[in-house]
Amino acid sequence: MTTPPTPAALRHPEKANRPDNPIPRKPEWIRVKAPVSAEYHETRNMMRELKLNTVCEEAACPNIGECWAKKHATVMILGSVCTRACSFCNIATGRPDKLDPHEPEHVAEAVGRMMLEHVVITSVDRDDLEDGGAAHFAKVIKAIRKSSPHTTIEVLTPDFLKKPGAVEIVVEARPDVFNHNLETVPRLYASIRPGARYFHSLKILNEVKEMDPSIFTKSGIMVGLGEQREEVLQVMDDLRAADVDFITIGQYLQPTPKHAALDRFWTPDEFASLKTQAFGKGFLQVASSALTRSSYHAGDDFRRMREAREAKLAASAAAE
């Protein structure tokens, strides 16, 4: 008698019984080419060899072909399974993986092999860990600093909700950029980001600046979830009040029919207008386009942000 195969685990079990939301056809300005380059496959094979996860794959990023062809990949630490269940996110949810004690060294090796000038390290949420994974972030930063001392490091962290002292652990490891995304406007948190708290996330970004003003801070939101333009502008004001240096604004793309429904596609002109507004509010750097994601062109944007800060400080010194 043949034993029937075990059914594959659901990637998003919490969404299985939700009604389907139709996925609209993408407009011309969002369509991208399928990844086929040799460099793409080299990057993919290296990640497999080193047993590393990437948010590029797990979150189904539309820019993966372009970025991996340039051997730019955003490493996702702390496993591939998230303890949260945000309605917009394509990362698997459920019982989290065990921490890999060798992951910091593997990440550092990947950075060295790709000869990265700038690297982005992100993670799943790990509400099951006492520090939310903060110490693991610090170990990864230190491992990269040891093997690739000239590489600048950007971390994109979870919110460390109810994890006292976690933010301090990451800040003490001194990343060059501390990124934590607000994701959407406060009105939509209950449906889009139910496990998080808008003002807690703002507080994290403000605390990083208070602890170490030399660290650049960064945050991002998606549009297309039902927010109004005025609400987006208010998020900009809230971020500037927290002294955040860099904002990213990108189009939400609905991963599956079970995810949050896409309200509309914002046009290129609307993204350009948001960029102008954000620079006018005092951000050092702004990335605003349909395909913008937190780590898209992160190295180039970091250099521009650093130059903008230097110019601002020089102008301030000259005025004194």
TrEMBL record:
It comes from the Bacteria. [4Fe-4S] cluster 2 binds at residues 82, 86, 89. Its EC number is 2.8.1.8. Its main location: cytoplasm. Residues 68-284 form the Radical SAM core domain. Pathway: Protein modification; protein lipoylation via endogenous pathway; protein N(6)-(lipoyl)lysine from octanoyl-[acyl-carrier-protein]: step 2/2. [4Fe-4S] cluster 1 binds at residues 56, 61, 67, 295. GO terms for molecular function: lipoate synthase activity. It holds the Pfam family Radical_SAM. It catalyses: [[Fe-S] cluster scaffold protein carrying a second [4Fe-4S](2+) cluster] + N(6)-octanoyl-L-lysyl-[protein] + 2 oxidized [2Fe-2S]-[ferredoxin] + 2 S-adenosyl-L-methionine + 4 H(+) = [[Fe-S] cluster scaffold protein] + N(6)-[(R)-dihydrolipoyl]-L-lysyl-[protein] + 4 Fe(3+) + 2 hydrogen sulfide + 2 5'-deoxyadenosine + 2 L-methionine + 2 reduced [2Fe-2S]-[ferredoxin]. It is found in: Cytoplasm. Residues 11-26 have a biased composition (Basic and acidic residues). Residues 1-26 are annotated as: Disordered. Binds 2 [4Fe-4S] clusters per subunit. One cluster is coordinated with 3 cysteines and an exchangeable S-adenosyl-L-methionine. Its cofactor is [4Fe-4S] cluster. Keywords: 4Fe-4S, Cytoplasm, Iron, Iron-sulfur, Metal-binding, S-adenosyl-L-methionine, Transferase. Belongs to the radical SAM superfamily. Lipoyl synthase family. NCBIfam families: lipA, PRK05481.1, PRK12928.1. This is Lipoyl synthase. It comes from Lacibacterium aquatile. The lineage of its organism: Bacteria, Pseudomonadati, Pseudomonadota, Alphaproteobacteria, Rhodospirillales. The gene is lipA.
